[in-house]
User: Fold this.
Amino acid sequence: MKMRFNFLIYTAVAATLLIQSCDKGFEAMNVNPDASTTVVPEYMFSKALLDALNNSWFATDALACGGSMQQFATYKDVPGIGDKYYFQQGTYPYDFFTTGYPGAVNEIGTVINALDSSETNKLSIARIWRVYIMSRLTDIYGDIPYSEAAQGYTTNNFTPKYDAQQAIYADMLKVLDESAAAFDASKATFGAGDYIYAGNVTRWKKFAYSLMLRLGMRMSKVDAASAQTWVQKAIAGGVITDDADIATMKYTDGTALNRNPKAAALLSNDYAVADGKSNTEGGKLAQTFINMLKSNNDPRLNVIAIVWKDGKADTTTSLQTGMPNGLLLKPDNFASYSEPNPATILQYTAPIIVMSAAEVNLYLAEAAVRGWYSGDAATTFSNAIGASMRNWAQFGAAGVIAESRITAYQAAHVLTGTTAQQLEMIGNEYYVSLFLDEQQIHANWRRLGYPTLTPVNISGNITGGTIPRRLLYPPSEESVNAASLQEAVNRQGPNLMTTRVWWDKE
Assistant:
């Protein structure tokens, strides 16, 4: 490998010298007349929005987090990183890291650097979106490059330090606080380049405080006092509680860039043939997830899941059957297991709900149970259920749940009991309400421990038969940023899927 590396360096240098010796009059030919020599923040911001949501969803959310949380299952071993805690080949544990930094992290950093300090609203929105991007990275890996991230182009820093997650959280919360307070309705925004809120600063402010609420609740196990402080600050600032304010990315069919990346990933990897048996990665919806929906008479089952019967997608409740996690061979009845609904989830035009009133109301219900919020826990819990069920209408006519079914479910699932019983009900509802945002489901499970999941323990797994707590730093960091990586490992613990991140305290 070293000989090959030296050969590549030699070849590159030789090619450079050759070009320098025979470039008479050819400089102009090597300049792209359509390329901009300066950064246009508005365009780059749009790209950062798209790339943040298009980052390795299949490998990270469906296979790793979705498999771990027993919402997705596969009978194959290579994609079994979360399904059976296998990792023998591929890049599944670090795709989110290796794609995130050169993509969305670098792009949003470029936007922030290109903006003038007087562009208050654009800076606030960009800084808030950076927190969203970085929070997802740190929650799934722990300590990560944060304060020195994406400085290669600006300061030639190609070996950024890894910040401790506790420090990252402190800064992210500070940034959200500053950014929300800095909005000025009289100043310009990204306008149409803002695919989420079209520059509406009132809604971005609510998004900032809702993200603050999420991060505050994330710390509930490791630092309850700080968690309470930030949760109460977020609530006082104003969070997303109504359907009109939810953060949504809309998509259209056509080129790959315009398609819903979750639908595109599922279709390209498992469900393109649409016959229930030709699934490339051997994937289905998992038994634990389907059984929970069925046992609760949850109307979301019929918009989420189908079974292929006589060549048609059938949503009938009695037909829905989840595939067990941990299988090593294709079962004979593979075609009879439930799959994502092609009329809702697999639509290229389906939206991505970035932050929902359902999620926020669940945090409010939890805060009320903990005594951090004066609102009524049962009411906000019921509101969360209603918001979650109404969200599916955004996926098209097949996603509409009748109001009578919503109210019946709410009446049958009233938040009550001891504190532990109420937290269990809230944890179970996170599990269903946030479906498709598997990273958030995984994070809330690590924090609350609900729903109660029975791990699989297949021979050859790399966690000792325990559900993964994090993903792995990529091997490339060991070669190009070894000292910084080692410092993080010394502080946080081994680079294993069983190592807990800072807020995931036992």
Observations:
- Residues 1-35 have pLDDT under 50 and may be disordered.
- The two ends are 42 Å apart (CA to CA).
- Strands lie at 72-74, 144-145, 162-163, 247-249, 283-285, 305-309, 312-314, 339-340, 352-355.
- Residues 57 and 380 are 30 Å apart (CA to CA).
